[in-house]
Amino acid sequence: MDPALRPLFRQAVFRGEPLPADWPADFAIITAYDPEGRVVPLAENVAADDRLHADLRAAGFRPHRVTGGSPDGRHQEPGWAVPIGLPGAVEFGYRYRQLAVFYVRAGGLCLVDCADGSSEDLGRAFGLV
């Protein structure tokens, strides 16, 4: 991941409907928007998001819509909270050409680089705004 982008990822906030009551404590947040950190046309993002959702469901997961973005709301990327292990989350992120995925481990938020699987604890709890 480009080191210049890491601070932006660290600031991400998440929006969406509350997670289901039976949602596990460990899960990933994966998007298909803006592959390789490049802004692409909305139609391409929507098509990629539809494919990711279908692939997650075909793999037996129960994705839940979560949108990550900048604290001011100017940049937002719809994605999916998925009850999946970290290796699988990185695999899906890599497949959809993402720089990183977020992983929630026992309520704590981590940033995970899709190129090498390295994980950074962001020192804060996951929450929806």
Q: How do the strands and helices of this protein lay out in sequence?
A:
Layout: H1 6-10, E1 13-15, E2 27-31, H2 42-58, E3 64-69, E4 76-82, H3 86-95, E5 100-105, E6 108-113, E7 119-125
Antiparallel strand pairs: 1-3, 2-4, 2-5, 3-4, 5-6, 6-7
Distance between the ends: 26 Å
Number of helices: 3
Structural class: alpha+beta
Describe the global form. Answer: globular
Strand order of the largest sheet: 1-3-4-2-5-6-7
Mean pLDDT: 96
Largest sheet: 7 strands, antiparallel
Rg (CA only): 13 Å
Query: Could you state the order of secondary-structure elements as H and E?
Result: HEEHEEHEEE
Number of strands: 7
Low-confidence stretches: none
| Percentage of residues in DSSP E strands | 25-35%
Number of domain units = 1
The helix content is: 10-25%
Written account of the structure:
With 129 residues, the chain is of the alpha+beta class. It has one domain. Helix content is 25%, strand content 31%. It has helices at 6-10, 42-58, 86-95, and strands spanning 13-15, 27-31, 64-69, 76-82, 100-105, 108-113, 119-125. The protein has a 7-stranded antiparallel β-sheet with strand order 1-3-4-2-5-6-7, covered by helices on one side. A hairpin with a 6-residue loop joins strand 3 (64-69) and strand 4 (76-82). The chain is globular, with a radius of gyration of 13 Å.
